[in-house]
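Weekly modeling sync, notes
Attendees: S.R. (lead), two postdocs, one rotation student

Agenda item 3: backlog of single-chain predictions. S.R. asked that every request posted to the team notebook include the full sequence so nobody has to chase files. The rotation student volunteered to paste the first one in as an example of the format we agreed on. Action items at the bottom.

Example entry:
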Amino acid sequence: MQIRKSCLIIFLVILVSCNSGSQQGRQAKNKQINSENALEKANRYLVRSEQEDIANYIRRHGLKMEETGSGLRYFIYEKGTSEKAETGKIAVLNYTLRLLTGDVVYSSKNDGQKIFKIGRGNVESGLEEAILLMHVGDKAVLILPAHLGYGLLGDSNKIPSRCTLVYDIELVELK
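Predicted structure, as returned to the notebook:
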């Protein structure tokens, strides 16, 4: 009889311990879910805010932009007559890179032409996507949302984190 009571007490202690452990586990899981929901809401807010800023910029400047599935906006305002850009070619660009505020951060006048191999990924993904839509001699305005530019970190120099970029480019040559 004594052994049964001892076993029953041990069983109850284990049961209570397991129950409180699972309750703590549920609480921890609920906190994690709440944190994920908060991060998701914050991210949605940032994306929506960036989209509004881009729309306002386009409206203020009277641009007739087209949008790709990735979110790149582009407007080719002067058509070239030469060959179309393609992966594997080396692109040579004259450019001015601005923030949505209008501040110039880089330009070919100050920093030299931008030269890169298309498809190599050595430039912003939005710039590479845009180049593939162009011909030699084309001039275009591009708007790169942060995820197609320098993303969450910026470039650790002149471009801040989560920054929308505005390029004015001319595809000068393909090699």
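Discussion: group reviewed the output briefly. The CA atoms of residues 5 and 11 lie 10 Å apart.
Action items: rotation student to repeat for the remaining queue; S.R. to check formatting next week.
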